[in-house]
Amino acid sequence: xxxxxxxxxxxxxxxxxxxxxxxxxxxxxxxxxxxxxxxxxxxxxxxxxxxxxxxxxxxxxxxxxxxxxxxxxxxxxxxxxxxxxxxxxxxxxxxxxxxxxxxxxxxxxxxxxxxxxxxxxxxxxxxxxxxxxxxxxxxxxxxxxxxxxxxxxxxxxxxxxxxxxxxxxxxxxxxxxxxxxxxxxxxxxxxxxxxxxxxxxxxxxxxxxxxxxxxxxxxxxxxxxxxxxxxxxxxxxxxxxxxxxxxxxxxxxxxxxxxxxxxxxxxxxxxxxxxxxxxxxxxxxxxxxxxxxxxxxxxxxxxxxxxxxxxxxxxxxxxxxxxxxxxxxxxxxxxxxxxxxxxxxxxxxxxxxxxxxxxxxxxxxxxxxxxxxxxxxxxxxxxxxxxxxxxxxxxxxxxxxxxxxxxxxxxxxxxxxxxxxxxxxxxxxxxxxxxxxxxxxxxxxxxxxxxxxxxxxxxxxxxxxxxxxxxxxxxxxxxxxx
Length: 482
Description:
Layout: H1 2-37, H2 44-65, E1 80-81, E2 96-101, E3 110-112, E4 115-124, E5 127-136, E6 142-150, E7 181-183, E8 186-190, E9 195-200, E10 206-211, H3 212-216, E11 230-232, E12 235-239, E13 247-251, E14 257-261, E15 272-276, E16 279-286, E17 289-294, E18 300-305, E19 317-319, E20 322-327, E21 332-341, E22 344-354, E23 370-372, E24 375-378, E25 390-394, E26 400-404, E27 411-415, E28 418-422, E29 427-432, E30 440-445, E31 456-458, E32 461-465, E33 469-474
Parallel strand pairs: 1-27
Antiparallel strand pairs: 2-33, 3-4, 4-5, 5-6, 7-8, 8-9, 9-10, 11-12, 12-13, 13-14, 15-16, 16-17, 17-18, 19-20, 20-21, 21-22, 23-24, 24-25, 25-26, 27-28, 28-29, 29-30, 31-32, 32-33
Helix pairs in contact: 1-2
């Protein structure tokens, strides 16, 4: 009961702040309308209605331009935001509102309620630990830190792991891969050993935790878990249980099991939630391939076989009734079309391009592309540290429309009609999301160190991190005026 109350209080404070802002704006518009038009007080009822319409429009525009980024693939589960940011950046580079040391790992940021959350690697009591930290989103000051897992994968690099790899001079920094999710005043983290932890955002107090290995007979993949928890509606989704319960949904407030389903071997891929042919579904990328379940009940909707080799790490991308997925280690990438008839759903391959490292290759390792107007934009490459290309690929055919080298295995998000990329060397790059060719708008050095994480845009700022530091950069419209 206490936890539920706390979450509602957080949401209430946010709603109250928005209402106060809108009310003040209405009063301002009304006052100025009366003053400039010499309207009598008796006419203010009509004036208020006019002002309310104006402010509602302004509020909608503001909402489209400023939003929290609440989980790994953003609030829309597809790596996109409707925010508008400056297209042309200052010649001297973006203004860093703050920059702080952040050691080890490839976890990205989740930003909500004035805080930025990520997972770092720290030595605690002689043991390397994954630690979820909360930073003040305005200053970068650390507010709290909660250990969530042991970094035992650091000792497994002799098994062929690549966490320490990178371009010459930009190596090392192996650490946490999973990104926190935020909802209603709570932070959710899935640790390396599949412990799902719910933390109160306000103070770092653990509200509940679930050990998927101990409680659900789970088993981690090689190099342990890298997937992030996914929140949609009342549930938080995670993979990692044993026979008959490999794929799981939990009540996000209480931690109670909502459903458990399937017998699968999990991968490093974060699941995606989407609506296909009117059905809300959560799609897991397992060793057997894509597995789609009813988001509410966990019942199986469809499966699509896809080759596995060593590690699968990208998140599937959904465009209408087409689902794209890919993998490195010589596998390649392809798309399946989902259909529905009296017998239920099915998915059939519409194209596949095998292998990686060639001009026509469409394989991703951990870098998940974004979708705009029927085309994928992303780091289609495998272990091409410091040099791998950013590509535009047609979703329906797999045709590469253009390729621009020099990004490495960083990550990309969609910001309105533009793509924002973070290279593995710490540069942020803004380009047009167009099939006509690579059209760069702006570029700036953001951080030092290796960046295998995803950039985040929230409230006119870009939050980025590397294996050495984190930074918050001003990309609001006013930044272009300096």
